[in-house]
Design a protein that fits this description.
27% strand, 4 helices, SH3 type barrels, alpha+beta, seven-stranded mixed β-sheet
Length: 187
């Protein structure tokens, strides 16, 4: 029973930090997506990832880096219909995973280094003979942890496009009635 509670708690933690959907206007998407990866699900069942390049009122242009699913476009720059979008997400890279990966790698690598050197010292062996492989293990664990943290360091956020607001034309002001001045003829 306790194990189920712990599992449910751990599964619910990512849901607590879910960001609300980003609300932006269609014309502002290139500026909002700058430097981030766009993930688009199309009505054909394809899921494409890439750099969002530009928009027109009826289309969008994307540099496809990866595509999956039926009828997915090949890699390269493509202009697709706006109406084909089923879901639009924005992927951001954070630094948190890389930091935790590096910290974990340092601790695990130091432990491995200590274990290798500790056994060598106890057995009366020379430390110089084990220093190369021990440092290799240390750096290997450190780099592998950093890479793993970087791989898991992606957050996606759903994007909702605001409906186009009708352009409001300014209402012309009514001309002011002519002012009458005192002392003029006809008054």
């Amino acid at each position: 029973m306790a194990m189920r509670m712990i599992t449910l708690f751990l599964a619910a933690v990512p849901l607590l930090h879910a960001a609300p959907p980003m609300q932006i206007e269609w014309e502002m998407t290139p500026a909002a997506f700058g430097g981030r990866k766009a993930i688009v699900k199309l009505d054909t069942g394809a899921r494409i990832e890439g750099n969002w390049l530009g928009v027109t009122p009826a289309t969008f242009t994307i540099d496809v880096e990866r595509a999956r699913g039926k009828n997915s476009p090949p890699r390269g720059v493509h202009t697709l219909d706006r109406s084909a979008i089923v879901e639009l997400r924005l992927q951001e890279r954070r630094i948190r995973g890389r930091v935790w990966g590096t910290v974990f790698g340092f601790v695990a690598g130091s432990s491995a280094l200590s274990a290798i050197h500790g056994r060598s010292w106890e057995q009366g062996r020379s430390l110089e003979k084990k220093a190369g492989p021990a440092l290799g293990v240390f750096y290997g664990v450190l780099v592998a942890s950093y890479v793993a943290g970087r791989a898991f360091d992606k957050a996606t956020r759903e994007v909702h496009i605001k409906p186009a607001s009708p352009k409001v034309l300014p209402v012309p002001a009514e001309p002011a009635p002519p002012e009458e001045t005192e002392g003029e003829p006809g008054s």
